[in-house]
Design goal:
The chain is an all-alpha fold. The protein folds into two domains: 7-89, no CATH class; 112-184, no CATH class. 60% of the residues lie in helices and 0% in strands. Helix 2 (34-51) crosses helix 3 (59-72) and helix 5 packs antiparallel against helix 6.
Length: 220
């Protein structure tokens, strides 16, 4: 008996359905009667659903099974189907290459989102709203810089960075001469403290345990 190897057989188009399903698709495609082709195609779809249990009963997944049937027929199966035959050119075409920003960040410790937020702040027409946005941005930048540099940072650094990143459109340099703190991180730190208290059940528990221990020592 002559052995038959997979390497000599017709290549599988969709491996998840196996060779027998592919043979059935080829057989259905060879039939002359369209009505009979359509009837057998619907029966085969039910079989393909059983072979692919991950497919759930919704329109998108059900249509995907029909797409697989057309793909295995090399887009030549002429039947009455609930969904149109997919466009072969779309399926075989390569995805478009993703375009990535190649521009260098001026200050990597701030990240690109800060640059985008500064650009948005510049576009704000309401003066008071723009002022609030810039003050919040400055505090955010100061917080990022402190985390990166692990040092206290003065407002003049943030002011000059804002000036550069905004293309010289956000200029707080005159305010530096007033000697006031422009970007106060107090609100940021207070928020962190509140977060610590909210999640700090263990600390309160520790205090209660310490009090109980001290009372026991007093009784002893």
């Amino acid at each position: 008996m002559e052995l038959e190897y997979n390497s000599t057989k017709e290549p599988l188009i969709l491996m998840e359905y196996g060779r027998n399903v592919q043979k059935l698709v080829k057989y259905i495609s060879s039939l002359e009667d369209k009505e009979e082709r359509s009837k057998l195609a619907h029966t085969l779809i039910n079989l393909m659903k059983q072979l692919n249990p991950s497919v759930k009963e919704n329109n998108d997944n059900y249509q995907r099974i029909w797409d697989h049937l057309f793909i295995m027929s090399d887009f030549e199966l002429d039947i009455d189907a609930p969904y149109p035959m997919p466009d072969k050119e779309i399926l075989i075409s390569k995805p478009k290459k993703m375009e990535y920003k190649t521009t260098e960040l001026r200050f990597k410790h701030y990240g690109r989102n800060i640059e985008l937020l500064i650009a948005k702040a510049i576009e704000i027409e309401d003066v008071e709203e723009q002022e609030r946005a810039i003050l919040h941005l400055g505090k955010l930048m100061k917080s990022f810089y402190s985390s990166w540099n692990k040092e206290n940072i003065s407002d003049d650094v943030i002011v000059h960075h804002l000036y550069e990143l905004s293309g010289k459109r956000i200029d707080y340099r005159p305010k530096l001469k007033e000697g006031k703190v422009i970007f106060d991180l107090g609100s940021f730190k207070e928020r962190e403290k509140r977060g610590g208290r909210n999640g700090g059940g263990n600390n309160n528990g520790g205090k209660r345990r310490s009090s109980r221990d001290n009372r026991r020592r007093g009784r002893d």
